[in-house]
Amino acid sequence: MSKSLQAIRGMNDILPEQTPVWRYLENTFAGLLEEYGYSEIRLPIMEFTELFARGIGEGTDVVDKEMYTFLDRNEESLTLRPEGTAGTVRAMLEHGLTGGGQVQKLWYAGPMFRYEKPQKGRYRQFHQIGVEVFNLPGPDIDAELIILTWRLWQKLGMADAVTLQLNTLGSSEARARYREALVAYLQERFEQLDEDSQRRMTTNPLRILDSKVESTQALLVGAPTLHDYLDEESIAHFEGLKARLDAVGLRYEINQKLVRGLDYYCRTAFEWVTDRLGAQGTVCGGGRYDGLVSQFGGKPTPGVGFAMGVERLVLLLETLGVVPAELKRPADVYVCAFGEPAELAALALAEKLRSAVPGIRLLLNAGAGSFKSQFKKADKSGAQFALILGDDELAARVVGFKPLRGEGEQQNIAWEALPEHLAACIQRA
Ligand code: ATP
Ligand code: MG
């Protein structure tokens, strides 16, 4: 195929064989979130570039290296959204939905775009399902978010394959003090740092804690730790969160290296990670961002949220072999008709059955064909039963009813009796 007819690298087609798994995941999540009282929000997939530059922040990989940014025909700089939080905050402010302390509990799902090196579990168009909550400052809501993700893993049958990493980042003042201490410590060892970390010394030093480079991790062993710099209120918040996770029996690991390097992140940070997917093991990440709304010029508004990567979750479901078999349930009936008069009667009958038996999975043969070829198609479709209509059946106002799987003889059923007969057979199958 010529190059121009290929999909863009890192942007995947989700083919019909896979969409049932995606829909299962999305529906399970949406159902759960509705049960917890969250509402869906749908946002544009493009925003003005400035929104992300301000909302995610210079000095992050996303803004510095990963955005799909271009000028539109009006010379305005637009960016394909790399994440969902900035757009959600923009929408809250634009529509006045967080003013006067209004609580908002929102979820969203959709494609995100980042110019990254494509590999297993890392793509340039990928999909996130996320939650954002506004105007609830306490640890109770942080706990609820974590607990509901845990319930999702349980529903999906993957709870044993993921672990919760938890940290508190303290207030932004506490982190500023810690950052100074960390920078002072690393400054003395600057030459030994890897190149990325050297760059982060000026842009985003806390992200160095997160470095995957072993020599850098070795340097960090003696470094000051964030928890020595925490403010009292943040400690109390963290204790409150842990108490709630303990109350429901949710296990966690404290990971002091789990940071989000920006000033408006504070207190709770968490990630759900798995060791079953190789390097791309984080399936969900989130935390508190009380400073973000004011970053956009709004009144100070507490916020907390998370986002999970759908591709990684689909991979994990498949790796664990926990995709429910019934997702691929084949048709109930395949209707064969021979000759134009029978085809017309079969069409009318099929439409009657669709009305009379809600949810019936009925395939009506298309493209005519001989007995042999229609039976072959009926069999291949995986349907439980074939309905057969030729001139004789038409004259007698019956159909041939033929079980395609297992035992059972073909028998004639009167058209009037068909809905009831089918409903009963499908229920048994
Ligand atoms: P990572 O460290 O893996 O790059 P991140 O910190 O950039 O992740 P977030 O911005 O917190 O990720 O996004 C939340 C989730 O979205 C991640 O935990 C992951 O599951 C998923 N995700 C992020 N980037 C990608 C990508 N390029 N391809 C697929 N999934 C992704
Ligand atoms: Mg990333």
Automatic annotation (TrEMBL):
Keywords: Aminoacyl-tRNA synthetase, ATP-binding, Cytoplasm, Ligase, Nucleotide-binding, Protein biosynthesis. One of its GO terms (biological process) is histidyl-tRNA aminoacylation. Residues 1-330 form the Aminoacyl-transfer RNA synthetases class-II family profile domain. Its EC number is 6.1.1.21. It is an enzyme of class 6 (ligase). Pfam families: HGTP_anticodon (PF03129), tRNA-synt_His (PF13393). L-histidine binds at residues 83-85, 114, 128, 132, 260, 264-265. One of its GO terms (cellular component) is cytoplasm. It is found in: Cytoplasm. InterPro entries: aa-tRNA-synth_II, aa-tRNA-synth_II/BPL/LPL, Anticodon-bd, Anticodon-bd_dom_sf, His-tRNA-ligase, HisRS-like_core, HisRS/HisZ, HisRS_anticodon. It catalyses: tRNA(His) + L-histidine + ATP = L-histidyl-tRNA(His) + AMP + diphosphate + H(+). GO terms for molecular function: ATP binding; histidine-tRNA ligase activity. PROSITE patterns: AA_TRNA_LIGASE_II. The keyword ATP-binding applies. It comes from the Bacteria. PANTHER family: HISTIDINE--TRNA LIGASE, MITOCHONDRIAL-RELATED (PTHR43707:SF1), HISTIDYL-TRNA SYNTHETASE (PTHR43707). Homodimer. Belongs to the class-II aminoacyl-tRNA synthetase family. This is Histidine--tRNA ligase. It comes from Pseudomonas delhiensis. The gene is hisS.
